[in-house]
């Protein structure tokens, strides 16, 4: 048949059978979506309130042409379904939902609008923004125009789902399964990381294949990270407003599908090849020992508010999929700042999210998820709840509960800031870590009491709930905000390129330009900026918890002061692989820090410090000291003007065990931090004939280790705005050729402890 409407007309008389050159069967309500086998394709889509749903098929050779329109005659458990025998992969499809147009009561059915299947595994192309993709006449002068039904067909302009063959040879893929406490996360962008890489073939730059290129994987391995956290790769939409401005949604926090990998990141086209390419990328990263964590956006979709387009869920069952204002259901609850919030209090909407998560784990082999604006997902009828339906369901799921779960623990609604309040199994982006570390190193009057909590794993936030230091994802920068280099090059945001007159983006950045706004030729300022970057990187990798490094911070990437580069798909956001000598130096320093952290379990403990003496050694596992070399006093902790802190980490007192139950011990380390703008004399604890400290890190230089020893109780000057790390030095004879200690030094350390506390 060539007229798509004919099959629907004929089905009024004969529901199933042969209709010209296509056959229609009843099919099954599960699995949801388009499920391809070599015998045919089953289609199933949920809609409780629709009175009818049509399946629209578009030719593989010409995706713009609607060839068949088939009425889905069966509804089982609120799922509409049918089966098309012998339908080959590669065909495009969408749905049209019939029903009541009553926006005031949350009903927005408009069969003239083609709708994306929420379960589609691949999507072809991007939306062409015309007035036809809106369910109401967008140019109508009435302020209530969203209540008026538009009758134009959106199919020529809307993107379509693709029927794909999901078979793939994983070649025995084994997930790296790194313990959370030893994980080091690298937040990256699929396109941004590889768009300028000289070794990646041009057609693969900015794609999944580019990220899996041997040169890129070698770089990540050499850097030392263990997991790549990819910014959104669920197929997303470039907003109409941005497209009209000649920009695009670079970050991708505007999801259209929760199952389909973003088509533009595929080097092999958008007809399903992007799915295979994504799987190949994951397989290659796993072979290199690198985990893949997805930044997922389940809190909202690209359909916006009542003035937004109709692309999928809004037209299929608006009242179930979205949170609506109780007494004004034409409007949307907006806890996300994007116009809508997904309604996870509805079991069928929750099912979409859970099915999506399981799909990415079981079919795509990813290792975990970072949940954007996770507080919006955890909301009950209003408040964010630890026992919300979403969190409770996650914990009961035998698949999802076993992967890495990371929350961005806030949204834009009231009561949305929930740092420290997610339950066991979850880790969180620790916004308090970011803010306090920035404030301390800027020299603010914040004291050192909170800093001590952040350095030691944020037990004040996580321990009382039965969680461990790995609950804290420590970060000093992320994709949202200044890069590390810009944090010390700009006092103010410079977002003019975004086309909003610099109104967008956060104004409170806790940044410091070191004396000049933007680039400068002043060698003293540039040296200070380098040192400040080394200070924050050192703090990050020497803190308890899980460090997250933002793409490019390891070499000093700049966004020219733009702290909201969500729409900058260009050199402002991309990773620059051509480095100056200064950038190579910072990269080498970062590599050294990461290796130092990995080599010493004291920096990635499984459990919190307890600060008390241990029964077997009578030694504490952590001790805080002041510049005099003595234990911090109550006055030291209380003063907002204290900007210098010493921390001794006692690896001899660790009560931790490896996977075989063997006791883990480590060396004794002394970490000194000075945020004063002047140098500070610091008395290293110990006695000269007994204690020698080996300097491993000094942020006044870029060498790790520094190859320098310091005797205790001899003059040591801690430089202005600097950090240094020492290790208690033992005789070489005390170590095996592999560097393991042969003899216990508990007696020596006990004497050191006593001196500090005298």
UniProtKB/TrEMBL annotation:
Ranges in a coiled coil: none
Example of a GO biological process term: glycogen catabolic process
Pfam families, per the entry: Alpha-amylase, CBM_48
InterPro entries xrefs: GH, GH13_cat_dom, GlgX_Isoamylase_N_E_set, Glyco_hydro_13_N, Glyco_hydro_b, Glycogen_debranch_GlgX, Ig-like_fold, Ig_E-set
GO molecular function terms listed in the Swiss-Prot or TrEMBL record: amylo-alpha-1,6-glucosidase activity
Keywords from the UniProt entry: Glycosidase, Hydrolase
All residue ranges annotated as the Glycosyl hydrolase family 13 catalytic domain in the record: 195-597
Family of the protein in this entry: Belongs to the glycosyl hydrolase 13 family.
Protein name: Glycogen debranching protein GlgX
Source organism of the structure: Neolewinella lacunae
Gene: glgX
């Amino acid at each position: 048949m060539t007229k798509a409407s004919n099959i629907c007309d004929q089905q009024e008389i004969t529901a199933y059978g042969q209709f010209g050159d296509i056959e229609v069967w009843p099919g099954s309500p599960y699995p949801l979506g388009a499920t391809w086998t070599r015998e045919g394709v089953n289609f199933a889509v949920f809609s409780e309130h629709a009175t009818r749903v049509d399946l629209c098929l578009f030719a593989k050779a010409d995706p713009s042409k609607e060839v068949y329109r088939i009425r889905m005659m069966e509804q089982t458990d609120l799922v509409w379904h049918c089966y098309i025998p012998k339908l080959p992969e590669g065909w495009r499809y969408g749905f049209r939902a019939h029903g009541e147009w009553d926006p005031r009561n949350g009903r927005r059915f408009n069969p003239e609008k083609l709708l994306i299947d929420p379960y589609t595994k691949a999507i072809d192309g991007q939306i062409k923004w015309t007035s036809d993709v809106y369910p109401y006449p967008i140019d109508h002068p009435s302020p209530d125009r969203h209540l008026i039904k538009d009758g134009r067909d959106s199919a020529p302009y809307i993107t379509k789902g693709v029927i794909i063959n999901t078979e793939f040879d994983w070649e025995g893929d084994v997930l790296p399964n790194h313990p959370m406490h030893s994980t080091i996360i690298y937040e990256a962008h699929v396109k941004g990381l590889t768009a300028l890489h000289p070794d990646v073939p041009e057609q693969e730059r900015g794609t999944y294949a580019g990220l899996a290129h041997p040169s890129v994987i070698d770089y990540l391995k050499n850097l030392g990270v263990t997991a790549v956290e990819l910014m959104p790769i669920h197929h997303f939409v470039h907003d109409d407003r941005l497209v009209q401005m000649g920009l695009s949604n670079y970050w991708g926090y505007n999801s259209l599908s929760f199952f389909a990998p973003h088509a533009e990141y595929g080097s092999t086209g958008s007809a399903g090849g992007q799915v295979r390419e994504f799987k190949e990328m994951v397989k290659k990263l796993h072979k290199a020992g690198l985990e893949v964590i997805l930044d997922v956006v389940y809190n909202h979709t690209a359909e916006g508010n009542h003035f937004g387009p109709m692309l999928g869920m809004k037209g299929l069952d608006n009242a179930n999929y979205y949170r609506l204002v109780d007494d004004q259901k034409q409007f949307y609850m907006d806890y996300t700042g994007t116009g809508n919030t997904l309604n996870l209090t509805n079991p069928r909407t929750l099912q979409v999210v859970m099915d999506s998560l399981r799909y990415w784990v079981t079919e795509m082999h990813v290792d975990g998820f970072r949940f954007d604006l996770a507080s919006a997902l955890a909301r009950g009828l209003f408040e964010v709840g630890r026992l919300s339906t979403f969190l409770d369901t996650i914990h009961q799921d035998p698949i999802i509960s076993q992967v890495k779960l990371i929350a961005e623990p806030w949204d834009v609604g009231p009561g949305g800031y929930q740092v420290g309040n997610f339950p066991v199994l979850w880790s969180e982006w620790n916004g308090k870590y970011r803010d306090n570390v920035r404030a301390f190193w800027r020299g603010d009057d914040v004291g050192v009491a909170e800093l001590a909590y952040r350095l030691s794993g944020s037990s004040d936030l996580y321990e009382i709930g039965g969680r461990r230091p790995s609950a804290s994802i420590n970060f000093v920068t992320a994709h949202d905000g200044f890069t590390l280099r810009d944090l010390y090059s700009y006092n103010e945001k410079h977002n003019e390129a975004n086309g909003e007159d610099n109104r967008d983006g956060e104004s409170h950045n806790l940044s410091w330009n070191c004396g000049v706004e933007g680039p400068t030729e002043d060698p003293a300022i540039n040296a200070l900026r380098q040192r400040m970057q080394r200070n924050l990187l050192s703090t990050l990798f020497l803190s308890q918890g899980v460090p997250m490094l933002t793409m490019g911070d390891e070499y000093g990437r700049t966004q020219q002061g733009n702290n909201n580069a969500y729409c900058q798909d260009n050199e402002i956001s991309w990773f620059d692989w051509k480095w100056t000598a200064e950038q190579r130096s910072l990269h080498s320093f970062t590599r050294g820090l990461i290796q130092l952290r990995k080599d010493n379990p004291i920096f990635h403990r499984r459990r919190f410090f307890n600060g008390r003496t241990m029964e077997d050694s009578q030694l504490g596992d952590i001790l805080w000291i002041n510049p005099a070399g003595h234990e911090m006093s109550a006055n030291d902790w209380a003063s907002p003007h204290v900007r210098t802190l010493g921390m001794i980490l006692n690896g001899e007192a660790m009560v931790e065990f490896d996977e075989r139950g063997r006791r883990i011990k480590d060396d004794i380390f002394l970490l000194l931090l000075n945020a004063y703008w002047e140098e500070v004399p610091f008395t290293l604890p110990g006695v000269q004939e007994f204690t020698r400290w080996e300097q491993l890190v000094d942020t006044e230089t870029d060498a790790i280790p520094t190859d320098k020893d310091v005797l205790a109780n001899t003059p040591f000057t801690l430089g202005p705005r600097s950090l240094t790390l020492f290790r208690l030095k033992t005789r070489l004879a005390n170590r095996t050729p592999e560097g393991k200690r042969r003899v216990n030094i508990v007696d020596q350390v006990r004497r050191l402890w006593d001196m500090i506390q005298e």
